[in-house]
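Quick start: read one record
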Amino acid sequence: MTCYEDSAEKTAEVMRGGYYRTGDVATRDADGYLTFVGRADDVFKASDYRISPFELESALLEHEAVTEVAVVPSPDPVRLAVPKAFVTLAKGSEASAKMALEILTFGRKQLAPYKRVRRIEFVSELPKTISGKIRRVDLRRLEADRRERGAREAGEYYEEDFPSLKAGG
């Protein structure tokens, strides 16, 4: 790529130092292997930890009832933000408190404590671009607006709704 045709500013931003900056974040281990973490604009902080939605989504997608998931930061007065999953369920699976507890419990077995999804909302579909990519920016904006208004939607569950999660660690 040589430039963005319509934006010299954006070209300068992504072409710093003579390299094209994709916006992807990866880590390199001691053996030199690269592991994709996520998009720089999707990574967020929760309790001062950097959280990659990609890792959390990958873990939750392993649950048999989950067909699609998008994780975004949900504003929180104590932790700054907590991971929230917008989930679409497989045909035959019912969006309910019982299903939310099952998915949250499943996620707790897959993820480190600081990466746990702490809120979940069942949706019939996720917002997408024309090419089919999930529009997390829309979900982040929606979530920030709701928390600002103090609104809580039907089909939305918080980990504190389930005292058994606290007892289980």
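The first strand starts at residue 24 and ends at 28.
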